[in-house]
Amino acid sequence: MSIDAVMHTEFPAGYVVFFGTDGKVIMTPQSFEHSSTIKSMQIDSLSLGRHAKTASDVYLDFPADENSAPDFAILREDAQRQGKRYGFEDVLLIAEVVSVSSARKDYDDCTAKYGRYGIPVYVVVDPYAAEVVIHTQPTGSGYIAAHTHKYGSGKLTIDLADGRTYTLDLDELPRPAADAR
What we know:
The protein is α+β, with helices and mostly antiparallel strands. It is about 20% helix and about 35% strand. It has helices at about 5, 30-45, 105-115; strands at about 15-20, 25-30, 55, 60, 70-75, 85, 90-95, 120-125, 130-140, 140-150, 155-160, 165-170. Strand 11 and strand 12 form a beta hairpin.
């Protein structure tokens, strides 16, 4: 698809469209709950400092053309861009917010991928199940440990590999309306 064609394409309402440097066009639906959940995680990251390196929907370099633009990521304080992007080696935590269309990818594919690349903490935030799954101890095929925490159960502290602590407020995560599925 040419750039001109892309620029004149009307994409469906409610979708986020990413244009990769490799020529890929990625369309993903984004609900109000999805966006609000990312916003909540960003607000909670302020406890790491106003200038903490966090990213939402920003490409990170992974080997073998497996670049990712996770919903939310926390990077090392001393992380440096390598070209235009940060590398996976600088990532301390990645969180993906489940949407109806992404559940298998977030629970299965991303768990395997992020574990394979040694991301210390992978968080699956699922507004539909009203739970957060924290994956730690990465392996070549996923993670050794996974702990589930229910929405509404207070503040969840997550230790980061650099000694800092990220606190996610499970009482403040938005829930979808009954008809949002």
